[in-house]
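Structure request: Redox-sensing transcriptional repressor Rex, Conexibacter woesei.
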Amino acid sequence: MIENDAETPFGKVGDKLTLGVAARLSRYLQVLTQAKKMGKETISSQELSDYTHVNSTQIRRDLSGFGKFGKRGVGYNVDSLVSQIRKILRTSGQHNIALFGAGHLGRAIASSDIFADHGFRVVAIFDNDPQKLGETVGAHQVRQIGGELRQIVDEEDIVVAVLAVPTAAAQPLADELVAAGVKIIFNYSEALLQVPPEVTVHTSSPAVDLLYALYFYLT
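Returned structure:
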């Protein structure tokens, strides 16, 4: 769905989005989803710019490549734009997640609406700590990571694995997930995961996010 190639005027390479456009559309969707929860009906490109740090001209260019979504002097209809961007990103519908790690971070993720707001549903939670096994976290009991992982991935139709585990545990777990058929890994650890080309890894680091914010503060 996403290509890491130079952007064309419409942000596509063939029928696929370029990496830059896909990343920006995802940021717009994050802001729009929150605006929708707050009851906001319309939003301007300048408001989207304020929240995403993307130039408003770039925002209008990104969106105009896929149709006419906004009205001059009125802005964009939040509800409609959320639906349209989800279609563009091909994320409409429900997608199942397995969460690995039932510590403080894992519990926060399981109890948050952040994934559900974007159509992702946590369907299984795993941990290898004997003291956590069987505990209820969110809506699920903590399971042990074991040989039945492939079966659970198939039965629950899991497309994304979220790793909220210690750095040392991340690579061995990623290897198990690849063997079980998981194609997308969202990594909250500091590990630099090695996976086959067909598996996508996204690493989220609070330190990197802080550096990003600091850059805008200093400039």
